[in-house]
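Example record for the data management plan.
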Amino acid sequence: MGYRRKGLGELKSIIILVALVVLGGLLLFPVMSWISPRLLPSSFVIEWTSLVVSSNGQASFAAVIKNTSGKTMTTVSITLGDEEPYTVDAHIEPGKTASLVLGQDRLTKNYISGNTYRVIVAATFDDGSTSSRATTVTCMGTGGSGPRSIHGEGERTGILVIYVYGAGTTIGVEGIIVKVDGNVYV
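Corresponding structural encoding:
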């Protein structure tokens, strides 16, 4: 009498196992592609900052920040030197860059050309997490020379700060900052 084998054959077992692995991968891929970016830490980088004071003492501050997390930034708060924090509602998607400008209406302190000031940028993300970065910015007076190389990826970002002052028909323009292809022109 011979023994009769019961159960699946080797080939059938391998085919079923491969089918289960492929099916599991197809089911888990959408879930993991949504979850995994959210597991990244909430973070951003300050790509560029500029503080310009005009000959009549009016200052403007500009910053370019990039969201390097997998979450959307919902608010951004900027503190320049001893100023009160300025918070804006933002909707900066992951991987995107935003320009933030504070003009003379937001800057109440006296800024001196050549002095360096501390900048703190804090962000809140759509999951409630927060992150902050600090850097410094050196105040430039108008009439500075350019171009100067800055950190960037060659993207075209434009920041234009214009002061118009005068009385009657006398109008002057000072403090133009333009970033094009990673170079800043003042």
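Summary line stored alongside the record: Residues 10-39 form one domain.
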